[in-house]
Amino acid sequence: MTDPLDQPLTDRETLPVELVDEHGRAVGVCQVSQAHRAPGLLHRAFSVVLFDSAGWVLLQQRAHVKTRFPARWSNTCCGHPAPGKPVAEAANVRLAEEMGLTAELIQAGVYRYRAEDPATGRIEHEWDHVLVGLLGTETPRPNPAEVADHRWVHPDELRAALHEDPTRYSPWLPGVLDVATTRSAPA
């Protein structure tokens, strides 16, 4: 079997994303880079939130080379499913690529948002499927091309930090956290 770290890196900006309408129905396809140019095209995405058995949330600090919101703290991982592909399947692949983890993921809901990155001018306009999972005994093994750092935080502590200094965090994190914790941490 080939080690995934030995494979050439994919230019994620050229991958296709699924454009959606105001109800989350597929209406077209474009490249990631095009979807994130102003004014931003509404497209399907996912955000994974992993909990531990005590209810703490695993955060990642996005790599400094990310094209949108680099170096900001965010949920465990996120990405875009290929058009027509199951969201949970794509989320599991991305979870392994970014954090070196596997987990059973359950969709908690959808969070729709639009945010402009003041540093890059790129736009996030996403129909974001929020998936939650429980991490057992695995230890995160972040891919340094994707993740600068990671840490565990209690949701109440995270909400306070988001309120105190929102610029340290991805703009979707508050909404994703609300969706993830409304469903409650998986048991």
What does this structure look like?
The chain has a single domain (13-181), classed as Nucleoside Triphosphate Pyrophosphohydrolase (Alpha-Beta Complex). 20% of the residues lie in helices and 33% in strands. It has 4 helices and 9 strands. The protein has helices at 32-35, 87-99, 155-164, 173-183; strands at residues 16-20, 26-31, 43-51, 57-62, 73-74, 77-79, 105-116, 123-134, 147-153. The strands form 3 sheets. It has a 4-stranded mixed sheet, sandwiched between helices. It has a 3-stranded antiparallel sheet with strand order 5-4-9. A two-stranded antiparallel ribbon has the order 1-2. A hairpin with a 5-residue loop joins strand 1 (16-20) and strand 2 (26-31). The longest helix has 13 residues, at 87-99.
